[in-house]
Hints:
This protein is mainly alpha-helical. Helix 3 runs antiparallel to helix 4, helix 4 crosses helix 6 and helix 5 crosses helix 6. The radius of gyration is 46 Å and the shape is elongated. A hairpin with a 4-residue loop joins strand 2 and strand 3. The strands form three sheets. The protein has a three-stranded mixed β-sheet. It contains 13 helices and seven strands.
Amino acid sequence: MANRTVKDAHSIKGTNPQYLIEKIVRTRIYECRYWKEECFALTAALLVDKAMELKFVGGVYGGNVKPSPFLCLILKMLQIQPEKDIVVEFIRNEDFKYVRALGAFYMRLTGTSMDCYKYLEPLYYDYRKMRIMNRNGKFELTHMDEYIDGLLRDERTCDVILPRIQKRNVLEESNQLDPRVSAVEEDIEEMESDEEEEELPREVRRSPTPEKRSHKDTERSNPVPVSKRSRSRSPHKRDRHGKTRDTKARSRSREREKRHRSPGKRHREEEDRKRKSRKGRNNRDRQEADKERHRDRSNREKSDRERDRERRHRDHGKSRSHHSRLQDADIREANELRSKLGMAPLRP
């Protein structure tokens, strides 16, 4: 009873909505613990809370083909068949990305071609990260726009065979859909307009002055007869001394490149030059600071060594004076004892 489709459910694609999922996967879902504990007696109102608890997207995983909670909720939606407004609200939800993914998957299974393109294509601009579980039970990183693109293009997603939909160009030719406008098209047009603006001053520079143009016209009108001489054509032109003129052509091409260099390129070169000079100054300042730090450290070490030497010298002098006083006291006592015994003192 718990696995039956509701009585007033409409057939989708000419069949029971639950039959959109393969029988072996459907049987695994009916036997799993999540279906028995979390999806029992679930209504459209309570389904929202379960969808908000989703942490990843996935189909079946593991060696014994366990279904994910995402796939269990998809089958539950096919079973209770919520209204289209609820599914559209799932898709338009921007706070919970897995609720949006659940609604998009259900719309792809049950909706028409028009509904799929109408409600799923705006999700191309959602670039949030998502976790998806593969067949080995490991998580992979994907994005919402990649997930939506897979729903519209692939034949199988999350181990479910997706129903066929019409191609977009067919719907555009029949005037059922407007041509899709890409978000990148405006940026491409701006780039092309900028390139055209940069090419205009180049053409102005290349156009000859009126004097040169008149001179060229006079040359064309009065051509000078040139005597034809038979000579062998070589790959490089040579002057009268027999030397090639490749270096001159190369220098002229360099000068032409310098003249026709765009202002934006010159500005970038100036910025690179300033950045390099600033970097060189910073390196020099850093080297000078390192040298000063090293000099201060050496001075401190030198002063510490001198202080230690003075302390050792002072301690050594104190120890010598104390030792000499003890020695004098011993000699004095020995002399007193020797004088009592009538012997000569040790020191006169």
